[in-house]
Specification:
The structure holds two protein chains of two kinds. Chain A is of the alpha/beta class. Chain A is built from eight helices and eight strands. Chain B has eleven helices and 16 strands. In chain B, strands 2-5-10-6-13-14-15-16 form an eight-stranded mixed sheet, with helices on both faces. Chain B has a two-stranded parallel sheet with strand order 1-7. In chain B, strands 3-4 form a two-stranded antiparallel ribbon. In chain B, helix 1 packs across helix 2. Classes of the chains: A alpha/beta, B alpha/beta.
């Protein structure tokens, strides 16, 4: 996962792990029904379950991660994201979370549509390919940009769709999704201006 | 610790077929201690040829059939949980079955024993649990036919079970699974010693039962595990015998397994229990599998194994998807193993980690 090399570690606002977790923790209310797509070892779900008493479900393709998640008591099943979404009836969840995985999916728009079918709201967090460090890296090196955000070589990157804040805004407009809230995080914390240039990470709360 | 099999007696049980079986006796074992709140009981459900002796050693020095996952510090931790295992109805290891003497006639039931179902097995287990003073089980778990019983528990008694762990199992037998069972049954019935099931005074249909078991063992292994275990190695010779004696290791192994099985298993029980497996269909009486599982209240941990071709992962996935379609609490993992269907019994390291964590979180939630 692209996020493994950054934002890991100390608590953000008293919440664990990756930086977008803190935001997700703010969005989701107590007792909500939550599905986390690409939930990894279930860290976020376990935290949401404990702190927010949510009804937690997770999907993860990697067997070792699934095992860790189950061992920590999170209902996770080993599956492809696209396939897992298909089984759920409309409106099953209050929130469907896709944290830093959109750029790894084969058909991102189809996944987002499915998220908004099985969930009332979608929480989508992704690393911003428009960040200035990425732009500079590309300009200076003339190679596929390698930065703290995108640390991979072109041939071993799990990221197959690179999107920016502006790209997502355009897509939402085109698909007529409502963006209820948007959060931008940069190096110094919350980004207030020029998010497409300054945000390393964007989190959107979207409804149909 | 040496364990012994105990027995519970009941006046009567009404079967799915409508027939009342009376009286009925259940052989069972328990490990660990029931806590004061009676909230730490786990019922282990055995597979086709298993019995109540699931863990520890008995007086004969025999280790239980799932001793590698049940015990102090193991997946089903007997330091924390009270573990129960009972021989199934129709069995031949202490619980009432076709070899049991029918009080009305003074002779073994044989083929007059009523046809039983997985639902009947579970009903009898529920009676046993009640007699042990347990209202709600922390978990039910088993592999293969044990998994079928676990699923049936969740549907029949949703209020009586907090967690369900079906392993390497299915919600109903496929044509292939029924076919293998039928070969086993036909092998037994083709043995002239079977004598329409009336053999308890004479020679047992050992040849038929042994062949049935040989077929079974093939289905429990995988191509890879057999290649690894036997290859084409010869048994006690350097050249072929050219005489239809045992040439290959694998032949020797199957014959050995077949003959050992005859010593401890009743041929009529084979017929009844294999039929119960073939009849099992969790969705029966419901509009769909989802409807059947939609009425459950337990958490589920469903496990399958990559090389299990007898109970392939797609069958576990059917269960998982049905649960998902009703947004039940279900965790699923396909574990990597070369051991085929036997994996749930022998390749238990990862299985243990998952079960341990799943049980711990369930137990913590119940206590909270």
């Amino acid at each position: 996962m692209s996020a493994s090399s950054w934002g890991q570690g100390p608590l953000v606002n008293g919440k664990p792990g990756r930086r977008d977790y803190a935001i997700i923790g703010e969005i989701i209310e107590r007792g909500a029904k939550v599905l986390d797509l690409g939930c990894g070892d279930g860290e976020l779900l376990a935290w949401l379950k404990r702190e927010k008493r949510v009804e937690a479900r997770g999907v993860e393709i990697d067997r070792e991660q699934v095992q860790k998640a189950i061992a920590r008591g999170v209902a996770v099943f080993q599956s492809d994201i696209e396939e897992a979404l298909r089984d759920y009836p409309e409106g099953t969840f209050d929130y469907v979370i896709l944290s830093q995985t959109l750029q790894e999916t084969r058909a991102p728009v189809a996944v987002l549509r499915e998220m908004l079918r099985v969930g009332k709201r979608a929480v989508v967090g992704f690393p911003n390919f428009g960040h200035w460090t990425v732009r500079l890296a590309h300009l200076w090196t003339g190679r596929s940009p390698q930065t703290k955000l995108f640390p991979y070589e072109w041939y071993n990157s799990p990221n197959i769709h690179f999107l920016t804040v502006t790209d997502f805004e355009l897509l939402a407009r085109e698909q007529r999704w409502k963006v209820e809230r948007r959060y931008f995080l940069g190096r110094g914390g919350t980004v207030r201006r020029f998010p497409n240039l300054m945000a390393e990470l964007a989190v959107y709360l979207v409804t149909k | 610790m040496v364990v012994e099999t105990k027995f519970a007696r009941f006046d009567s049980i009404t079967l799915d077929s409508g027939v009342a079986l009376a009286p009925v006796e259940v052989a069972y074992e328990t490990y660990g201690a029931l806590n004061a709140a009676r909230s730490n009981a786990i019922l282990i459900l055995h597979a086709f040829s298993g019995d109540a002796h699931a863990a520890f050693e008995n007086a004969e020095g025999q280790e239980g059939w799932w001793d590698n996952v049940i015990g102090p510090g193991k997946a089903f931790d007997t330091d924390r949980y009270f573990v129960i295992c009972a021989n199934v109805l129709g069995g031949c290891r202490g619980t009432t079955g076709p070899a049991t003497v029918n009080g009305a006639t003074g002779r073994p039931y044989a083929m007059t024993f009523p046809v039983i179902t997985i639902g009947d097995m579970v009903r009898l287990q529920k009676m046993l649990i009640g007699q042990l003073g347990i209202e709600r089980l922390l978990a039910v778990s088993g592999g293969s036919m044990g998994g079928m019983q676990a699923l049936q528990w969740a549907v029949s008694y949703p209020e009586a079970v907090a967690a369900v762990i079906p392993i390497a199992t299915t919600s109903r037998h496929s044509a292939q699974q029924i076919a293998f069972n039928e070969v086993g049954r036909q092998a037994i019935m083709a043995d002239t010693d079977w004598n329409s099931g009336d053999y308890y005074d004479g020679p047992k249909p050992g040849r038929g039962l042994a062949v049935a078991r040989m077929v079974g063992h093939i289905t429990y292994m995988s191509d890879a595990s057999m290649r690894e275990k036997f290859g084409r190695r010869l048994r006690g010779k350097d050249e072929f015998g050219f005489d239809f004696s045992v040439d290959f290791e694998v032949e020797s192994y199957l014959r050995y397994r077949g003959s050992k099985f005859v010593e401890r298993f009743d041929a009529n029980s084979y017929l009844y229990i294999s039929k119960a497996m073939d009849y099992f269909d969790l969705s029966a009486g419901h509009a769909s599998l989802g409807d059947a599982l939609g009425q459950t209240a337990a958490r589920f941990l469903v496990l399958s194994f990559t090389s299990d071709w007898l109970y392939p992962s797609y069958q576990s996935l059917e269960i998982v998807r049905a649960l998902r379609s009703r947004n039940r609490d279900v965790a699923y993992c396909e574990l990597t193993s070369n051991y085929g269907h036997d994996a749930f019994l022998v390749d238990v390291r990862e299985e243990s980690d998952l079960v341990r964590g799943f049980l711990a979180s369930t137990y913590a939630e119940i206590a909270a």
